[in-house]
Each structure stands twice: as C-alpha cells, then as structure tokens.
Amino acid sequence: MPDAANLPASEDAGSGRLSRPHLCVILDTEEEFDWGGPFSRRHASVNAIEHLGRGHALFRRFGLVPAYLVDYPIIDDHRAAGVFGPWLAAGECLVGAQLHPWVTPPFEEVVCPFNSYPCNLDPALEQRKLAVLTQRIMERLGVVPRVYKAGRYGLDIWREAMLADLGYEVDTSVLPYRSFAGLGGGPDFFGYPDRPFWTCPSRRVLYLPVSQGLIGPLRRMGRGGLGQAVFGRFSSRLYIPGMLARFHLLERIMLTPEGVSFEEMRRLVDSQLRDGARVFALSLHSPSFMPGGTPYVRSEDDVAALLARTERFLEHFFGALGGVATTPLALKAMLEGAAEARVLGPGALTGEAAREIRVV
Q1: What is the Cα–Cα distance from 63 to 327, expressed in whole angstroms?
Q2: pTM (2 decimals)?
Q3: Is-cis flag, bond preceding 346, omega within 30?
C-alpha cells in the first residue's frame, strides 16, 4: 500500500480539475462521555479504542486510508501505539489531532460549555494546549500530525497562523449551514463555503469542510439568510425544519452513518455532484464502533447497522458513482493548483460569517 500521506488522489492530480468524486474518511477519535451531561475532566475513558478495528477493516476493503484525529485522552493511553502503530507502518491510516480543551493540559480554564470551544479560549492558552497534544502524538507514534479538527467545531479561522506554525496543513472544523452560537457560545458557520477553500494566496492551510449540505427545491434560498432563519432556535421549536424535510423541500444532511440513513447520504452526494462538488468527507466518531459509545449505538445491533449503512454507501460511492479514495493531505497536494478550492480574498467572510466565528 502506498504511503498514506502521499496517496495519489486520482488521475486528475495535476490537471487543475477533478472529474470524478473523491472521498476521504475523518474520524473524531475521542474519549467516551455523556453527550448530554456536563463537561468534566474526569470523563476520559477510551475503551472504544479497542473496537476501532471493526471500522478500519471496512475502510481497508475499499482502499480508504482514514484520518484518525485523536484527542489527548486517546493518545495518552498506553493502547494507542499498539492500535495505530501497525496501521501507520502499513500506510493504512493518517493520525491527526482533535483538541478537546477540557481534557487537554494545561488545565488553566474553567470547565464550562463556553470554554469547550477552542475558539473561545485565550489564543495563548489554545496554542499551548494544541502544542501539548501535538507533542504527545509525536512522542507516542513518531509522526507529525498535519490534519486538525477543533473539538465541537470550535474554530477561530483567524488563528490560522497557530495551526500552520505547529505544522498543520488541513483543517476539518468547518460545519456548513450550522450555528453553535446558541449552544454555549460556539461559532456560526452560515456564510462559509461548503467546499474546500483557502483563506489566502499563500495556501498554508486547506480548509476541508464537513460534508454537510442543503438539498431540495429550496436549497439555494436556504444557503442565504433563509437558512439561518429556518434552522434557527425559534423555527426549530416550531418544527419547521422537520416539516420541510418531510416534504423534501429543504433538508440539511451530513455525510455520516451516525443517525443518517443510506438514502439520505445518497441524496446528499447525488445532489452535491449535480451542483459541481467533487470532494466529500465521510465523518464518524470513534466510540460509535462500540455499543453504548455514542447515542447512535446503544447496542451491538446498532453498531452492526451503522457498519452496514457505511458499507452500502461506500458500495454506491465507488460503484455507481465511480468514486476515488483519497486523504486530506493528498487532496491538499492536488488542490493547490485546482479551481475546486476557492481562495477567499480580503472581506470574503463578511457579516455574520466574519463576526460570529469568534464569539465574545
């Protein structure tokens, strides 16, 4: 198997255009905790690390090289080297970083919902935490992590220099068409691109958004101010998003088997392909391979169903759609000269997209 970091994306590499759909896999590789409970530094169990092989075997079958974005409890566990080491040696995975502030030293901030978003920390503290996590990955696995995700999607895009200076080349924190402003003071991603982009011509960091999109007859209107209104807190209380989705007028779908059906994933990818998208990221949480690890998998049957949905989607993507397996780093290398990755000029992120990303 070729080296994962240099995995060729396809015959399109160097052409400046992508003709076929490309898929990478991003796993938020993290501790198990109560998603509905309070944040706590004591919740650091990582038993799901022993179940990762179930998903990894499936990705291997389809030639996928998943990117495991590990947080501090994962990489600090003695089992991490035994799990990821052989896969790294075989070129079967990438290991990047995911910053969960509440379980990552140094512990200087108050543990609360607001501080669970890295973008809300003092910049110097966020840098110290990410530096500690980066160093721990290097010590345990002997690799330099180059793919990043801010925990809880808590990205401050204006802190890009911090990522680049620590060696990160791809960020996967942008969640299009979603606002966390009402959930403890997180970022608002309405107004951000839903396809890969750079923030400046130097192309230091490629932003690879989560594959989440709006589909249905109202999708174009939903990408503007209507989307914020439809998916806002007031409209959600009135069940407006559910009613629009029920009649397939406007659906917000993420490319993940967690709580999303195969048909929904298929509709999302087919719709985005018609709109010109060629880059897709399948997202999962590592504890979803263990019964009880996340709200999506309460039982062994739930895990089996999640794997079956994943397998069915991959068969569709690489079969009917003629897709190509890739990695975030391979995409960055390919997109540096491609039209698919837009360079955002000065002032491109305006209004709410510019202001709400750093909530104060």
Answers
A1: 11
A2: 0.90
A3: no
